[in-house]
Write a structure and sequence with these properties.
alpha/beta; Nucleotidyltransferase, domain 5; 2 domains; five-stranded mixed sheet
């Protein structure tokens, strides 16, 4: 059994895998994770792998959660110069966000050597890999972050709770902001895709569905960090 944990900037997710299959999982805060771990029962000897982009204090709390499971088989993933034929573009490899590194490894595990990986979350990241060589990437605000930055100093703009994504011209200020942000995301992603026409495109993250609906082509995939952790564990 393997317990895989993806501690992102805004949420923590976890999976229990057996033989590569997901048999359980969840999402929430540390309290939820502790409750889930406490209920594991017969799988307390599982190998644990963690991807954490939060600060050291949060990583320490995660460590404490899993000390009761199998402290000798607790692994925190780190970015490295190379792994399984994937080569890191960073001069200081450990500075590449481990979630981005694991996404690259997940694509490698799928048998793909050249790819554009677009992760549309709180921040939007794009990483490019060519024949196993990570060429580097881009980081820019995601939908909510960009929207909030534009209206942070005014209380006169009101947004609908769940507006449909659109790149049509807005007919009120809120609509203009939303359309502008979506258009910026779409244009940026499409520009990168056009620069690397021979690479397969993968879309992941909380806004991947919306971005795909607006015209960004690519295969939608979920759980790349989990898949990367599983692959990384095989050689850890």
């Amino acid at each position: 059994m393997r317990i895989l944990v993806d501690a992102g900037n805004t949420s923590t997710k976890w999976q229990l895998r057996h033989g590569g299959d997901v048999v359980d999982g969840g999402q929430g805060d540390l309290r939820d994770l502790r409750a889930w771990v406490s209920a594991l029962g017969g799988v307390r000897d599982s190998v644990v792998a963690v991807s954490c982009v939060r600060d050291d204090a949060y990583a320490l709390e995660l460590n404490e959660v899993f000390e009761s499971v199998n402290p000798d088989q607790l692994h925190f993933a780190v970015s490295s110069a190379a792994f399984a034929g994937v080569r890191n573009a960073y001069e200081e490899p450990y500075r590449l966000g481990v979630d981005r590194w694991l996404a690259l490894l997940a694509i490698k595990a799928r048998g793909e050597e050249s790819a554009v990986i677009i992760d549309v979350g709180t921040a939007c990241t794009i990483d490019v890999m060519d024949d196993g060589q990570h060429l580097g990437g881009y980081i820019f605000p995601g939908m909510a972050l960009a929207r909030d930055a534009l209206v942070s100093n005014t209380d006169k703009i009101r947004f609908s709770k769940h507006p449909d994504p659109s790149i049509s011209p807005g007919t009120d200020t809120a609509g203009c902001v939303l359309s502008g942000v979506w258009l910026t995301l779409l244009a940026t992603c499409q520009h990168v895709i056009d620069r690397f026409p021979d690479s397969k495109v993968y879309l992941t993250g909380g806004s991947a569905k919306e971005l795909g609906a607006l015209g960004v082509g690519g295969e939608r995939v979920d759980g790349l960090v989990f898949d990367g952790l599983d692959f990384w564990l095989n050689g850890a």
